[in-house]
Specification:
The protein is mainly α. About 55% of the residues lie in helices and about 10% in strands. The protein is built from four helices and two strands; from the N terminus they run H-H-E-H-E-H.
Length: about 110
């Protein structure tokens, strides 16, 4: 495994850490000189008992090492409680985006007037 990660780094191939064991994830983070990607993962917080998904510590470490995660919100993987929370998060984000768009439009109008 170590040699594979090192060779991937050498030739410029991103290491994908989606659905690997926790132990393997931490080894990749230690070995890789380049940022890794979790191309199709979910958060364990939202998917109880799905060990293939990343825990909070893993997500933090991935970010600290410059990596990225694409979070999969497949409805069959998410508990009802998390779905309800997700709806609230989307509503809150939508309100913030609406506010920012209106603010930007207002600033644009101001600059056109001047």
């Amino acid at each position: 495994g170590r040699e594979v990660v090192e060779e991937m780094n050498r030739v410029g191939i991103m290491v994908d850490v989606s659905h690997i064991s926790d132990n393997t994830f931490y080894q990749v983070m230690e070995i890789s000189k380049a940022p890794a990607i979790a191309s199709h993962s979910s958060c364990r917080y939202f998917t109880p008992n799905w060990e293939r998904n990343m825990n909070d510590d893993m997500i933090r470490m991935l970010a600290e090492k410059g990596g990225v995660i694409q979070i999969n919100f497949g409805s069959s993987f998410i508990s009802q409680k998390s779905k309800d929370l997700w709806k609230k998060m989307v509503q809150g984000t939508s309100m913030v985006m609406e506010f920012l768009i209106l603010k930007m439009m207002s600033q644009e109008r101001q600059s056109m007037i001047q």
